[in-house]
Amino acid sequence: MTDCFLNFDISLIVNLLFSVSGCDGRRVVGQTGQNVTLPCNYDIKTKGAVHVCWGRGEIPKSKCNNQLLSTDGHKVETRASSRYQLLGRLDEGDVSLTILILTEEDAGRYGCRAEIPGWFSDEKHHVDLTVERAADSVVLKSSPFTSSSSRSADHREPPDFLF
Ligand SMILES: *[C@@H]1O[C@H](CO)[C@@H](O)[C@H](O)[C@H]1NC(C)=O
């Protein structure tokens, strides 16, 4: 990823200038009770399979904070809970983290670190997860005041007892 090559102190300045966009802080929105996938890929073709960890919060100088899951690049080594899964193609460098059955406590910043051998060569990606309450959208969908144009006119099953 050429857009994520800055690892020295200058990256602090760059982060301050571009703290909302750039390679840092992709945004993902999920709903409570649903699964959500936080994207992360590394260059496995040129770097080979490497150790990757996922943690919560900012990615520290080494390893991961509050580690949720780690992989040797081929299989999952550790996970803090069975809700954390790698369902992507590990052999293609897809180490996206799937969180099952989201709760509101899952909202926040996550960090993915691929430990590429060499000084300052780790690939690091932040993902900011927003969790919407599923109950809110149920209320919206069933509200008589919302437009029904997206859902074709009321489609009700005839009650069985009529027959
Ligand atoms: C969440 O993922 C699990 C495991 O892949 C799957 O069994 C389940 O059906 C998924 N749930 C939803 C709501 O998609």
UniProtKB/TrEMBL annotation:
MF GO annotations: phosphatidylserine binding
Entry keyword Glycoprotein: yes
Region feature Disordered, mapped onto this chain: 143-163
SUPFAM superfamilies xref list: Immunoglobulin
UniProt main location, coarse: membrane
Annotated signal sequence range: 1-25
Subcellular location: Membrane
Membrane topology annotation: Single-pass type I membrane protein
Domain Ig-like: 33-132
Superkingdom of the source species: Eukaryota
Keywords: Disulfide bond, Glycoprotein, Immunoglobulin domain, Membrane, Signal, Transmembrane, Transmembrane helix
InterPro entries to which the protein is assigned, alphabetical: Ig-like_dom, Ig-like_dom_sf, Ig-like_fold, Ig_sub, Ig_V-set
Keyword Transmembrane appears in the UniProt entry: yes
Biased amino acid composition, Basic and acidic residues: 152-163
GO cellular component terms attached to this protein's record: membrane
GO biological process: apoptotic cell clearance; cytoskeletal rearrangement involved in phagocytosis, engulfment
Homology family: Belongs to the immunoglobulin superfamily. TIM family.
Stated name of the protein: Ig-like domain-containing protein
The organism of origin for this protein: Poecilia latipinna (sailfin molly)
